[in-house]
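Researcher: If only I could read backbone structure tokens as easily as an amino acid sequence. Walk me, if you will, through where the backbone shape changes along the chain. I have put the entry right below:
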Amino acid sequence: MHRRWLSGLRFEQAIHHIVLEDLIATVEAATDRRDRLTRQLEAVIPEWSLAPVVNALQALRGVAHATRTFTDPGDSYRVLGSLSTALASLRQSLDQLADWHDRNIDHAALDDGDWRQGRYEAATAAVELRDAADAVQQAHRSLNTAFSHNGRIAWQPSADLARRSPDRDSSRRLAPPSAFGTDPASREGPDSLAR
């Protein structure tokens, strides 16, 4: 559709049209190259030792895409759960990489053969990986807090209901308010657990 719009543009100067056509050809060539490389990568990745990492990264990209818009608000709960699991795995991976650097520090040298500097680089990488793991742990804690709050929400089916004040139109409420987190003694009414 965008390509059709571009091809319909008219310019007073012929050179402008020539430049536009050249730019369109450049974009099409880049798109073809990207598609060709994608097919080649998809063919070789299953045999690659890092295939599980690639699959995990693709899954995270899929989550990033899926979180742009939810058709079912309940999906937010499932996505937050998946992200929580992913962060826990990421923390574990970072810790394991830091441990690997520590265990293999005696094999670390720079390209020029400098062993002392190689060991320094390996030790520094281990420290940075542990710092990253700690940051991921903090993100995991915050995500789990958000996950908990999200789990308390009774999502309503339309944006119109979300904009209404519950006091103005409580007869149209789709779900009764949750008593989760309230003191049982403060609940009243026939459905109350209070005795």
The helical segments are 2-7, 14-44, 51-66, 75-103, 115-151, 159-163.
